[in-house]
Amino acid sequence: MNDRGWDEDDARPYFFLSYAHTPKAGARGAGDPNHWVRQLYRDLCEAVLQLTTVRAGMPVGFMDESMHQGELWADRLSDELATCRVFVPLYSPRYFNSLPCGQEWYAFTRRPVYPANIDSERTSGIVPVLWAPMSRYRLPKVASELQFNHAGFGPDYATEGLYALMKLTYFRSAYELAVHRLAARIVQVAEETVIPVGRRLDFNALPSAFNVTAPTKQLRISVLSYHQGEVPEDRSPDYYGAKRTDWHPYRPAGSPIAQHAVRLARQLGFQPTVHEFDDEAEAIIGGEAAAPGLLLLDRWALRDERRRELVRRFDRADATWVSVLEPWNLDDPECEGQERELGELSDRTLRITRRASRPSFLGATGGPSGLTTLDEFDDALPRAAMKAKYAFEGRTRAEPDDPPPPRPNLRDAFRRDSGSDPFEHENHLDHENRPDHENHPDRDDPDDPGYRMAPVGGPR
Q1: Confidence (pTM)
Q2: What is the model's pLDDT at position 30?
Q3: How far apart are CA 137 and CA 371, in angstroms?
């Protein structure tokens, strides 16, 4: 194994097939909508095998079938994106609205691309595929800037997209031609470029290369906890993992709490990402509201003086667009024994956050006893996430825009041109004909319908 985690004696996969997972239709008995992508993947692997010298048993390509679930899927994606030779995205409207697809694109493009020889001008290892027609949709900047010619794949492919060519028997020959040309292009790009093996990246923390998600649809989930190497002597390491984001407070129930929160957030329509609070804290404290957020707080971590001070500074910053959730498992004997001590420590550290809780969201932070079961956490997260979203939207609306340019003043224009004010006489007559209380603004007339009303448009 080299220092980037790759066995140099193994063949690197030729391509990584990146696609947007399609949900099943609601009808009973609906088939698997991703069946056609799997079929394309198999056909591509077979075609690439025919055009190369890949040894038996060696990987030809990679396609993620995990539906972005399970503890190891992100690590597997990171490995494949760091080693594949060509990146093959399936263009569709759904693709460019998918956060994981944008993260996959971002991860692959962190690796440098070199032409294989001095005469080559190829500078990208991306071979896009028109899965669905995209003529009516605006491509993100990273895709629109990619120079790629689809003409060689046949006229039906460019008009209908590969999905239609697969589904309709009428287009069978057009599909076979497109797959053959696509496989040939993958092999050509792999041979005309040198893309070194990259470093494994924390997939969950990556941004999307597409940058199309509205900030209010994002949810930044931060975790304040330990990793196994930091756990104090009187705390069992069984509830922790290799990373701080692996904290699993309700073990053996459920999964690591950040992964569980991601699934719940997606059900609410968010596109969540997971981060360590240590990395997020300074930006939040500084008032940088990139998106609504959740802080999953392990009270055991408050015994660490540095982290406790970080949380205290967060509390004083009054970052209302980040809601706090405190999982606290009373089935864990260590938590039961420390419930009072660590509960009081949490109350002292998060004084402003506690005081500012709105009645309509009581329970969102779990109160003084924390969220003692996974069911309580499941009930609290939607309230906390929506509270953060509303606060973020309110903050965004409250931020002042650039001041509008001054409106032209007709009176000043005449004064500059003629040295006199043509409206002076009109103003004088108007003043004389106004009701008495308008000539004397200090006089109040409670019977007047306009009494103490602000002028239309509000105060200037």
Answers
A1: 0.54
A2: 61
A3: 44
